[in-house]
Specification:
By secondary structure, this protein is an alpha/beta fold. It has helices at residues 23-29, 49-62, 76-85, 101-111, 136-153, 174-178, 225-230, 277-290, 316-328, 354-363, 373-378, 396-400; strands at 38-42, 67-71, 93-97, 115-119, 157-161, 181-186, 193-201, 209-215, 218-221, 240-247, 250-262, 270-273, 298-304, 336-338, 341-342, 348-349, 368-372, 386-390. The protein has a nine-stranded mixed beta sheet with strand order 3-2-4-5-1-6-7-8-9, sandwiched between helices. The protein is elongated, with a radius of gyration of 24 Å.
């Protein structure tokens, strides 16, 4: 236990971060690896967790840092096969297999690694407890021991975790409270893109993302996600709208797609992929009450193209515009981006960082932006970018078409 210190005497020297050599991954971490940090990476089976961490270990090993990859699921030959596919060759990257944490500490005492990887934490157990590996007691005890070791030695340690059917890291939430950083792998395995999102980070911004593309040679960085997400957008298609959202500190332009049509069923379907299902129901109710546009008998499908998840209220105005466009079968101008929060009274509210969103849209070649009047008043005018403000959904139709 440390000695009590006056708060004014505590140094604010920034932590020395270690760059992994993968800028998109460093961005998700908040700038790089912090010595002594314990990081948890979760995701669905086969989405690329082990591939990414092996690439990170390989890059750091190439810089001269010793990396120890402790696997409780795969043999050394299996890991070697993956390393060959990723073109990873290093004398500083060590592989060891096992499931006992006491054996792991013996290996670490002799090697003294600069980076530690546990794949996966659910397979590791301690002989001090009689319960099976993966149980809550085992997870807590093993993780606490690894946390203490990481802090004492200053060694960054990665824990790879499985997820349950509802997408939460198995544990049930024990690991997320213990570790310094929680990273989630997002994206459908049928999509080529993978998104690493920081949902907890004691050393950086939460909701920061790194975007990768899965290829035969491993995960490759996507330097301009906005351009990638919009490159296959159809021209003048009804129900297609572009919104600028903020992921951590990064503005990203994504395409919202809506399909609205008469339902042959007694209870119309409401399907949302990438956005909150309850938010769609709320917006449909607001449109019926405040705009007189009843969609109670319509099937409504809303999708975020590219597999990205958008959960900020700033997407409301874009979602409503996409549904109106599909319902009327009238396309929104391709050079327009739309964002704003919608309240139950039909008012359009301002959102955070409006200028950052507009600048990203301008960079991608958009020339019009539809936003709330409150954001419009606070934004400085930009050349070659027309800003249109609305204060209510009642005036939305006049602006869109």
């Amino acid at each position: 236990m440390g000695q009590p210190q006056a708060i004014d005497s505590i140094s604010l020297d920034p932590e020395h971060r270690r760059k992994t050599g993968i800028p998109e991954f460093d961005r998700a971490l908040g700038g790089g690896l912090v010595p002594g940090s314990l990081l948890l990476l979760g995701g669905e089976p086969g989405i690329g967790k082990s591939t990414l961490i092996l690439q990170v270990a390989g890059r750091l090993s190439a810089q001269g840092f010793k990396s120890l990859y402790f696997s409780g699921e795969e043999s050394p030959q299996q890991i070697k096969m993956r390393a060959e596919r990723l073109s990873i060759h290093s004398e500083n990257l060590f592989i060891v297999t096992g499931t006992c944490v006491e054996d792991l500490f013996k290996r670490m005492e002799g090697l003294k690694p600069d980076l530690m990887v546990i794949d996966s934490i659910q397979t590791i157990h301690t002989d001090a407890l009689p319960s099976a590996p993966g149980s809550v007691g085992q997870l807590r005890e093993v993780s606490v021991r690894l946390l203490r070791w990481a802090k004492e030695t200053g060694t960054p340690t990665f824990l790879i975790g499985h997820v349950t059917k509802d997408g939460a890291i198995a544990g049930p939430k024990v690991l997320e409270h213990l570790v310094d950083t929680v990273l989630y792998f997002e994206g459908d395995m049928s999509h080529m893109f993978r998104i690493v999102r920081a949902v907890k980070n004691r050393y950086g911004a939460t909701n920061e993302i790194g975007v990768f593309e899965m290829k035969e040679t491993g995960l490759e960085e996507v330097g301009n996600p906005s351009r990638i997400f919009l490159e296959e957008r159809p021209d003048k298609a009804a129900g297609s709208v572009v919104i600028p959202c903020i992921e951590g500190t990064r503005p990203v332009l994504v395409e919202i797609q809506a399909l609205v049509g008469p339902s042959p069923l007694g209870m119309p379907r409401r399907t949302a992929i990438g956005v909150d299902h309850n938010r769609i129901s709320l917006l449909v109710a607001v449109m019926g009450k405040r705009m007189g546009m009843e969609m109670g008998d319509q099937d409504i499908f809303v999708n975020v193209a590219g597999g990205l998840k958008v959960d900020e209220p700033a997407a409301d105005l874009g979602i409503v515009s996409a549904m109106i466009s599909s319902f009327l079968d009238r396309p929104v101008d391709n050079d327009m981006v739309i964002y704003g929060e919608i309240g139950l009274a039909g008012e359009v509210r301002g959102v955070n960082q409006p200028e950052l969103r507009i600048k990203e849209a301008k960079k991608l070649g958009f020339s019009r932006c539809l936003l709330s009047k409150s954001n419009l008043e606070s934004c400085e005018p930009l050349s070659d970018m027309e800003l249109v403000g609305v204060d209510s959904v009642k005036g939305l139709m006049d602006v869109l078409f």
